[in-house]
Structure formats: structure tokens, C-alpha cells
Specification:
The protein is of the alpha/beta class. It has a single domain, classed as 5'-nuclease (Rossmann fold). The chain is built from seven helices and five strands. It has a five-stranded parallel sheet. Helix 1 crosses helix 2, helix 3 packs antiparallel against helix 4 and helix 5 crosses helix 6.
């Protein structure tokens, strides 16, 4: 596995935006994973759907394409160190973004996200470059 896909690209692919579908299809040959945190972010969308049950089924089927990466003690330690560092510098980002970033760094994966402004603050994170 080479890439960790952030929720922004997942949501776009799930709703069928061609650029997102094409990118994830292209990257899948090298291996793509998803943080369990992104499951929660996508499932939040299912909760608000007109038919949540059907939406959960659709979301789960979509997520089956990716390796699911759980949170672990080392990831949580990296999260805590990053949180302390960013807090001290006044550059805090959301806990969910820090968890996703810590997962990518821990596994040595390149993070595929459009949210560069936040993820660039995480030490050692490798961000996917489009084009």
C-alpha cells in the first residue's frame, strides 16, 4: 500500500465526481488505504441522507475498495506529540485531521488530500502532488 486517501477525495468519488473517481482508480494499482477516522466522516453523511440505511450500505460497499487502517497506540502517541507541537506554535488543526495525518506518517503512506493548508503542518507527512 502506498497511499492514504483523505475524506475529501472519498466523498467526491462516492458522489461520482469524475476527477476523484479517476484519481482513485489510478492510485488503486499501487494500493490505497483509508483511516478508520474517514469512515466516521463518511458515515456522518449517511446519517443525514433521506434513507440512512441504504446510504450506509452504499458507503460500506464503496469503502470496501480500500484497506481500512485502524488507530493504534503508536498512532495515538504521534497524534499527541503533533497536537502538543501545533498547540505550542498556535497552529492547531482539527483532531480528525491530526489522526488521519498521524496514520499516514506512521504507515509511511503518501496522503491524498486537497487540505494541504492543514496537513502541511504535520511533521513528516508526505502529500500527494497532483499532475
Amino acid at each position: 500500500m502506498r497511499y492514504l486517501v483523505d475524506s475529501d477525495w472519498l466523498v467526491d468519488a462516492l458522489i461520482g465526481i469524475p476527477a476523484a473517481v479517476d484519481l482513485l482508480d489510478h492510485l488503486s494499482a499501487e494500493g490505497t488505504g483509508v483511516s478508520i477516522v474517514s469512515y466516521g466522516e463518511l458515515f456522518e453523511g449517511a446519517v443525514g441522507a433521506p434513507d440512512p440505511g441504504e446510504s450506509f450500505i452504499r458507503h460500506r460497499a464503496f469503502l470496501d475498495r480500500f484497506a481500512a487502517l485502524p488507530l493504534s497506540d503508536p498512532i495515538m502517541e504521534r497524534f499527541a506529540r503533533t497536537r502538543a507541537l501545533l498547540r505550542a506554535s498556535g497552529l492547531l488543526i482539527s483532531d480528525l485531521d491530526r489522526l488521519i495525518g498521524a496514520t499516514a506518517v506512521h504507515h509511511g503512506l503518501t496522503l491524498v488530500s486537497r487540505n494541504r493548508r492543514h496537513f502541511e503542518r504535520i511533521p513528516d507527512v508526505k502529500l500527494y502532488q497532483l499532475g
